[in-house]
Design a protein that fits this description.
Elements (H helix, E strand, L loop, with lengths): L8 E6 L2 E8 L2 E7 L4 E2 L4 H7 L5 E4 L3 E5 L3 H6 L4 H6 L4 E7 L5 E7 L4 E4 L6 H12 L3 E6 L5 E8 L2 E6 L6
Parallel strand pairs: 6-7, 8-10
Antiparallel strand pairs: 1-2, 2-3, 3-12, 4-5, 5-6, 7-8, 8-9, 10-11, 11-12
Length: 171
């Protein structure tokens, strides 16, 4: 949009491989690998770090995924960053059904120097397959309810997750 306005897509070389970002109207489209989740046993350290006990806990590629009953619970969380940093996973995804979207989430990764990420593409690599299975839907609406927040459309395409959303320029 800024450096090459006519280009339909750009490719980023990342630690995880090539990430291609395209356009669809006023939204950007990214294609990520899917990160299926596996159940994890209840963990008192997770509950202590989050300040509340999730209804279910899962592991994915690099993070925990903690499920709560409703959107209000997600919005009210004030996690202990030190305790999150001490956990054995890189980050903590928290999620619940949304009041007017399929699901809401937040993402905390103090081990990477990120107290809370405003909108996290990689977290949706786990969120999309989890909610697609739970809701029996291939395309989902999502809202990350951080301070800045953002809305995404997530589509599960085999072992890939296609994310669509708007960018917030900050530099």
């Amino acid at each position: 949009e800024r450096l090459a306005p006519g280009r339909p897509s750009v490719r980023f070389h990342t630690r995880s491989g090539v990430l291609e970002v395209g356009r669809e109207g006023d939204r950007l489209v990214m294609d990520f690998p899917s990160w299926p989740v596996t159940p994890a046993p209840a963990d008192a350290r997770v509950a202590a770090a989050l300040g509340h006990n999730p209804t279910a806990l899962f592991r994915c590629e690099r993070d925990y995924l903690a499920v709560f009953a409703d959107e209000a619970a997600i919005r009210a969380l004030v996690p202990d960053q030190g305790q999150l940093r001490a956990l054995d996973r890189l980050g903590m995804i928290v999620t619940a059904p949304g009041s007017d979207v399929d699901f809401v989430s937040r993402y905390f990764a103090p081990r990477m120097g990120v107290a809370e990420d405003p909108v996290t593409g990689s977290a949706h690599c786990a969120l999309a397959p989890y909610w697609a299975d739970r809701l029996k839907k291939g395309t989902l609406t999502a809202r990350q309810v951080s301070g800045r927040g953002g809305e995404l459309t997530c589509a599960l395409r085999g072992d890939r997750v296609v994310l669509k959303g708007r960018a917030a320029f900050y530099l």
